[in-house]
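pls design
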């Protein structure tokens, strides 16, 4: 014969495992694990433990994965310092220090795994519903537990999204730093400028050819490339020296050898290029100057000739 209990309210005979009196709806609290207090305590414990877990943000995700994120940020910062602006090196140093610290830092706690906690929560909720869910008071209590869990679940999902966003940000920054082209060398910049000033150079050549030297000098203000600047200055100087040499040539023709020699001695090439790389743009004009000066010098009598510069004097 099965055991029975009496309802404390209406005194009806009920099976021993009854939790709600079928006659008066009085709630009969079970003992042990199935008691209202124990089930409620278990559910509140699961919810409390989930609330205590910090859901990741974008920044905390970087910190959590510092052993990977910090070295990548370090590399990206130094790439940007090289390709964009040297100030990124300061960030690179900060990230490098953080990378070293993260090696010895205790690993961050992993994000809570919702699956086992959700399974435990659902089991307790089902037990509560089966035992006491008919009662409106406990039905409302169960609904509140489910609402609390839904909030926790949404926050955990949001934290997971933030974590994935942090991965996306990290990969994007590293990719951008990697694909940004390397800075152009001075030679490349000058070549681009030089090619863009073709029209100005043609105009300068025309002015020099018709002996409008002052107008050609004015065009120097519009020339930005080092190569073109040196070329124009060299062309102008060569033209002016050529005119001076022609003047000496006329004096030689009139047998004024002493004056011609003195003036030829005074003529010299003023170097326009300040660096070794830019000398290549000037030396061809210097060589033409030597040829012109030698030609005039050869017209002087043997005793009046001077020593003319050579290529090694450049």
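designed seq:
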């Amino acid at each position: 014969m099965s055991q029975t209990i009496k309802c404390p309210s209406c005194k009806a005979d009920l099976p021993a495992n009854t939790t709600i009196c079928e006659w008066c709806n009085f709630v009969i609290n079970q003992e042990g694990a199935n008691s209202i207090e124990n089930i409620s305590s278990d559910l509140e414990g699961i919810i409390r433990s989930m609330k205590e877990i910090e859901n990741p943000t974008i920044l905390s995700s970087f910190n959590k994965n510092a052993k990977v994120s910090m070295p990548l940020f370090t590399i990206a910062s130094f790439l940007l310092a090289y390709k964009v602006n040297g100030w990124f090196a300061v960030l690179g140093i900060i990230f490098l220090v953080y990378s070293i610290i993260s090696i010895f830092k205790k690993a961050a706690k992993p994000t809570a795994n919702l699956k086992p906690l959700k399974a435990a929560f659902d089991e307790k909720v089902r037990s509560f519903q089966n035992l006491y869910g008919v009662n409106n008071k406990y039905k409302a209590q169960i609904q509140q537990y489910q609402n609390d869990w839904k909030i926790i679940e949404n926050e955990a999902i949001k934290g997971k999204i933030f974590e994935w966003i942090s991965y996306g940000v990290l990969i994007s920054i590293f990719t951008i730093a990697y694909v940004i082209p390397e800075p152009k060398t001075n030679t490349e910049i000058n070549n681009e400028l030089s090619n863009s000033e073709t029209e100005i150079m043609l105009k300068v050549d025309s002015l020099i050819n018709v002996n409008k030297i002052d107008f050609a000098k004015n065009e120097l203000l519009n020339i930005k490339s080092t190569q073109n600047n040196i070329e124009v200055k060299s062309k102008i100087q060569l033209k002016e020296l050529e005119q001076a040499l022609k003047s000496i040539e006329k004096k030689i023709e009139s047998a004024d050898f002493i004056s011609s020699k003195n003036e030829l001695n005074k003529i010299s090439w003023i170097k326009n290029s300040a660096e070794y790389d830019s000398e290549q743009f000037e030396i061809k004009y210097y060589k033409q100057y030597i040829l012109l000066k030698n030609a005039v010098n050869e017209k002087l009598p043997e005793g009046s000739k001077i020593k003319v510069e050579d290529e090694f004097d450049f």
